[in-house]
Amino acid sequence: VSKVKKDKPSLLQKAMKKIKEEVELDESQEQIKQLEKMLKDLEKKKKKTPGDGYAKMKIKELLTDLKSKKEEVELDEKLDKEDEPKVKEIIKKLKGASQAHAGQAKDLQKAVTEKDELDEAEAYSPKQIKMAIGIASDPRYKGGNYSGAVKAIEKIKGGLSQHKQVAAVLKRQNEALGENLDGRTREYRQHRERLESLRSKRLEARHIDPADIDTSATDDDIKSADKNIMMQLRKSVSLRGQYSVEFLDKKKVKVPQKIALAVIAKYNSLRKPMDKEKFQAKIAKSHKDLLMGLKESLDEKKKKPVVFKGTPKQIKQQMKDLKKKDKIKIGEESTLDRMNKKLQEKKNG
User: Fold this and answer.
1) What pLDDT, in 10s, does the model give residues 116-151?
2) Burial class (CB in 10 A: 0-12, 13-18, 19+), 227
3) What is the mean pLDDT of residues 183-210?
């Protein structure tokens, strides 16, 4: 019995062989079509080349070989009449099973993909994402403590700093930091240039060659430049009022961006270096002095030159009205008083 089993292939083996042969036939048929087309093109070719004859010969050989193999396969396909219906049934079932498995594989892949997307969406709650974005936007981490922000976010939940929304905010803050650092470097360089210019002028006045003096920036120079009130105010502007300005009274205050801009505008409006130094020295004392200095500059802007028009009598009345409103000093002979006297003298003859 075992010998019969060994000698005679099973129905399943026959079915598998049938499927394999069908595939081989399809492939062989395709190759034959391609070779026949190539042969046809060569025969139609108008301009012949030396290699055309050899190519035709080789193609014909290949065609003969493929066609003979095809015939062998077709002969092998002829099954016993008894086995044919059963083999066909098995082939049908195998093909059906194959299609079913393919569908199951697609469904399984889809389920896995959906699960991954769902896991990613459910990994972090909206509250956790909101908290992480809040930390990334926190002024304490805006100043350059990027790694500190990441650590704080990771404490909420591992991997949260890599979330698409959170990572975008962290990246934006990091880029802003780079811009601020570039600005800081530029401001420091400009401040150093101003200091060097003033220093050179003083040395020239004392007949000292600036080349004989060591001009390399020390750590103290850098620290001093960092504490320069104008540089600190510029940092406050670039960081939207989130930078703590240190005054000479050792107190650190966050100066609002609008106030810092107004102080810088006042400083830039001063033409004389001496006036700039005086203004800078005054506002650097304390936050109160900074506000007072700004108030004085605003009061000066509000003052308008007094213009008198009309007859001498009308001008005299205008002057009286001004004195009542305390617009000019009373008790001191002003230019207006002297003008009034001269007008009176002319009137009296």
Assistant:
1) 555 555 578 888 888 888 888 777 765 556 677 888
2) middle
3) 64
Q: What is the pLDDT of residue 331?
A: 44
**CA atoms of 176 and 144, how far apart (whole Å):** 9
- Per domain, the residue ranges of the chain are 2-119, 124-210, 226-303, 312-343
94 closest CA partner among 15, 147, 28: 15
Q: Which residues of 289-328 are buried (b: 16+ CB within 10 A; e: fewer)?
A: bbeebbeebeeeeeeeeeeeeeeeeebbebbeebeeeeee
Query: Where is mean pLDDT largest: 27-36, 300-309, 321-330?
Result: 27-36
C-alpha 119: how far from its chain's center? 27
What is the rounded distance in angstroms from the CA atom of residue 152 to the CA atom of residue 138?
A: 11
What DSSP line would sit under 11-66, residue for residue?
Answer: HHHHHHHHHHHHHHHHHHHHHHHHHHHHHHHHHH-SS--TTHHHHHHHHHHHHHHH
pLDDT reported for residue 307: 64
Distances (CA, A) of 22 to 25, 29, 74, 76, 217: 5, 10, 9, 11, 86
What's the pLDDT at 135? 84
Cα–Cα distance list, 86 to 11, 79, 80, 81 (Å): 7, 11, 11, 10
What is the residue-wise DSSP string for 157-214? Answer: STTGGGSHHHHHHHHHHHHHHHHHHHHHHHHHHHHHHHHHHHHHHHHHHTT--GGGS-
52's CB contacts (< 8 A; 6+ apart) are: 42, 45
Task: Please choose, from the candidates 98, 107, 112, the residue with its C-alpha nearest in 3D space to the C-alpha of residue 16.
Answer: 98
pTM, two decimals, is 0.28
Cα–Cα distance measured from residue 98 to residue 105, given in angstroms and rounded to the nearest whole number = 10
